[in-house]
Structures are given as C-alpha cells and as structure tokens.
From TrEMBL:
Protein name from the UniProt record: Xylose isomerase
Highest taxon of the lineage: Bacteria
Keyword Isomerase: yes
A GO MF term: isomerase activity
Tagged with keyword Cytoplasm: no
Amino acid sequence: MPLPSLSLQLYSVRHALDEDLPGTLAKVAAVGYRQVESSYRLYSRGPEFADAVRANGLISPTLTSSLVDVDLDAIFTAANELGANTVVDTFIPEQFWTSEADVTRIAGHLNAAAVKAADYGLRVGYHNHWWELEKKFAGRTALETLVDQLRPEVVLEIDAYWVAVGGEDVVALLGRQADRVRFLHLKDGPINRENIQQLPAGQGKLPIPEILDATPLLEAGVVEFDEYDGDIFHAIAASFAYLNPKVTA
C-alpha cells in the first residue's frame, strides 16, 4: 500500500534545533520534507518556531505532547495555531503500566483529552514504545488492553520498530488494530533497544512494505530517529529517499 503522506518527527533533529532552529527547518525542507511532526515543547519556545515552519513551506498535521495532568486548552490552542489535526501523547513511562488498573487510569486520561479535543476540532492519539508490548494482561498486550478502553475517536500512532523490540509481530498487531492506526513511526535497525544502532528506513530488519500494506487507514508515515551514529541529516535524507517514492498524495 502506498503512503498517503510523509512527515519528519522533529525529535530526530532536536540537537540541531537547539543550535539553530530556523536553519534546521530550512535543511529539513531542503531534503524534501513538506510535513513535520512538531511538539508542544517546540511551540512553547515562542513564535520563532511557527514562523520558521511556515517560512519553509512546512505543515504539521500532528503535534506531540503529554495529555496527562497538563493544560489541555493551551496544548490544543497550539495545535490549532500550527494547523495540526491530531495531538499525540508519545510517552507514558514504563512504571505506569504495571497493572490493569494503571492501564484503566491511562485510558481515562486519554478519553477525557479526546472529549476536550473535539471542542477544538481535534483528535488525540497514543504512541507506543516497547514496554506497552512486553507487558501483558491475560495474554493481551498492555497496548491492546488500553485500546479496549479507549473512545472510538482516539487513534494510534504505532512505532513499528518498538513493536518489534517489544516482541510482537508488527504486521499482525497492525492488522488487529487497523481501524485505529492513522500514523506510523518509521525507523529501522537490528531490532534492539540500542538507540544508537537505529538505521534509515529500508536498511534494517523491519518489513516496511508489509507494514504499510497492513495500515489501510494510514494518514502519514513519520520518519524518526531516537539517536543515530552519524550525520542525522544524511539519515533523514536516506529515509526520505526510500519512503517518498511510496507517497501518492
């Protein structure tokens, strides 16, 4: 299945952004990216960020932020100002997934955020790491235990690499959650927790064509690196070169 669109998660170039925000976004655009996944943290740096996004012809369909014990109105206002349609919680630490009661509490936070997001014309979503797949309750992953309790409008941004690191069959999980998955984080590598060993898409062990085929409602693939042993701009360019030919939108 082709990609509807392709974004870059700006966490990948966070060190460069800290040194030169406008210049880094210009380099991202020069690679060929037309979409970015931004964050509330970047937005909070002031108008420089939104101005640089627009100046480089970029759009940000997704914004990442915690959705637990935060000022949701401020976050959703930021999403509207950036033109995002979905706010994704990308990190609920491993220690908060130890019991089914924990998962129920997380679902409550996400469901409450979804109700408020609707007032702003937005959706919310959740992004996984490996621990939500490793942890299981009654034979089901903690991630799927969470999904069972989410409102139907809450979507998933699946990090395919972390699903594999968590010991699950990525294609099978995507098939089970096909009605929820709207976004995919696409990185590659040897499938382990060593972030520094991550590779551009298509250069590691993930079956990316099969992963894309398993996501019929996908809206965007998102290139991301947690770390990279080399020039990160070469890495994001290599992922772009591999994935962009699959984009049809």
